[in-house]
Amino acid sequence: MKKQLIREYLMPVVKIGISRQVVIPKRLHDQLGLAVGDYISVELRGNQLVLTPQELVEKRLDEGLADLKHGRTVGPFKTAKAAIRALHARRK
How far apart are CA 57 and CA 61, in angstroms? Predict the structure, then answer.
């Protein structure tokens, strides 16, 4: 238990690989909900390198196109009421 408590407070240290690659520790990766193919912006603030997860339109567009391809969509609808009815019916 003592080791676990100490680990929670230690800052992870990682090694830079041959191609300047850096491995994000699993705990941090999971906390941020990152997945293969996600984008991260890289920024220099003073002497710190700051990595920030990014949502890119291209990724969301790819996900939407995959939904269309696999039939995970509803519609099109002529009115908003028709769309709402279909969503309520699908929820049941």
Answer: 6
Tell me which residue range forms the domain holding 16: 1-54
Residue 36 shares a structural domain with residue 25: yes
* Residue 65 pLDDT level (bands cut at 50, 70, 90): confident
> In terms of DSSP bridges, do strands 48-54 and 39-45 run parallel, antiparallel, or are they unpaired?
antiparallel
Q: pTM surpassing 0.85?
A: no
In 1-92, DSSP assigns E strands to 39-45, 48-54
**CATH number of domain containing 45:** 2.10.260
- Distance in angstroms (rounded) separating the CA atoms of residues 3 and 10: 11
pLDDT in tens, 8-25: 667 888 999 999 999 999
Q: What is the pLDDT of residues 28-41, one digit of tens each?
A: 999 999 988 888 99
Q: Give the integer Cα–Cα distance in Å for 51 and 54.
A: 9
Q: How far apart are CA 86 and CA 67, in angstroms?
A: 17
